[in-house]
Write a structure and sequence with these properties.
single chain, alpha/beta
Amino acid sequence: MKNLGYPGVKAIKDLTVKFLSGYGMYYGDIDIQKHAGFFIQEMKDGLEGRKSSLKMIPTFIEYQSQLPEKEPVVVLDAGGTNLRSALVIFNKDKEPVIKNFKASVMPGIDKEVSKDEFFESIAASIKDIIGLSDKIGFVFSYPVKMFPDKDGMLIRFTKEIKAGEVEGQFIGKNLIDKLREFGISGKKVVILNDTVASLLAGMSAFPERQYSSFIGLILGTGMNASYIERNSEIRNSDVSSLNQDGYQIINIEAGNFGKGQRGEIDLEFNRKTLEPDQYTYEKMFSGAYLGGIAGEVVKFALRDGIFSEGFSKAFSDTLILESKDIDDYLYFPPRGASMSGLLKAMDNEDRIKLYYIFDNLIERAAIFVSVVLSSAVIKSSKAIDPCYPVCITAEGSSFYKMKNFYSRVDRYMQKILGERGIYHYEINRVENAILCGAAMAGLVG
């Protein structure tokens, strides 16, 4: 395939932009400041208990600057295919030491399980280490309603977990009850989700760094964020027993944002998902959905005659793209088998058009993530002093593997925040963030 040169490539790009824009899918048509304004208002409405697509769930985990040393804590991480457990100890240098790590299949993945079977599997995963600590930090990354005792009631399962009897149940209480059946008592469980764990990991990883506040972001299979809010700003839950001048972590449930700028193809794709009315924002760009939305865009392009006849015949309606395929293609030539096969049916123009379509979806994803993070920075009211920036701990394969994603997010954050005032932040990656955050929750809870 020979290089088409500037005039040819520019014409192809202009055609691709026109196609995407016609369906409301072009990143350049997004009013990013308007988008951020909607998100911030939804945050405020959620905190005030008014109608909002953002649940703004109080965690009752309050901000503490001191990290207990040399005290072991049992940690659990449930939120995907695997259930992970370990024992974590922060040494004298405040570094996490992870011991007895174990991963097992999450109960309810393969088949429907009862409430008793579900909690028996959870308890069994820590049976060998539970005698080493009375404290348990349990990252449970499903929608839960939190209570002041830091236990959480499961609202509903997501991610294809089949355990209907667990919905409406207290996770910590049921785990403690099951441990008692094993002859184990005197344990304390703190429930949190993965974004809260990510935030707490930032607090533990940089003990000598002066940060004014912390934010946690997860962009992997799904997308969510958490931040620290003053108790006096919270009206959607009973925080009257807490110091009103104090602070606690808020789980935004950002993936459910209902005022995202969706295009016609977003709507078509969303209608095909299992729960069309739930978590519409993350369905536009998170890891579980990016491949699907990309495939839908290509199908629309085929109908509009954007691609050659050869490519149209090769791209089967049964072909299912995954997020990894998108990234593989952008690091041209494609590494994935499905993309390599399609390459044989492409002409020069097809190759470039597909690149611009995929790259547009990554750029759009960066805008959507920057809206979430910028809104959390602004709402924290803590990012003004350059000597005390806000620490953002970002986790998830999509955040770090999508091509140039970090730099794109940072560029759009600078745009949003730069037009709204003076704000300072740092985006960090923390090794074993979820396990470390779970340990922090178990220790300070």
